[in-house]
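User: Hey, my collaborator sent me this sequence without any context and asked if I could get a structure. I don't really work with proteins. Can you help?
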Amino acid sequence: MNCVLCTPNNENILWSNDKLRVIRVDDPNFPGYFRVIWNHHVAEMSDLSEEDRCYLEKVLLTVERSVRSGMKPDKINWAQFGNMVPHLHWHIIARYRDDSHFPESIWGIKQRDAQLSRLNKWKDLADQTSVLIQKSLAEI
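Assistant: No problem. I've predicted the 3D structure and written it out in structure-token form, which is a compact way to encode the shape of the chain:
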């Protein structure tokens, strides 16, 4: 098996343990883009025990709360597909009404050019939020 999430390269890991890891995705158009990745190769939430599902949900909500608090986005997008990479992972993305794709998903049709000043502000907020995520997850 050749799974890119089982054998990752150059991930910006913010926090990890034996069950999962939280990374910041390097996307210049969406600086507030984080991913929660289950370490063991499973494809679906139903592959996890009830205890592990509850733990994963706690981590996901902690990341969401940190992003909402640190970045003050207009919306948070969660996505969990696995169509291209059938390894359990979640995308948590800060969204703003004036980002390049809103109200489309980040994988949808571009709606406008994002202003560089706004992207720089979001990047600064995402830098601060990365630290907040680390601190918040250390407490659970």
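In plain terms: Strands lie at 12-16, 20-24, 33-38, 75-79, 89-95. You can pass these tokens on to your collaborator as they are.
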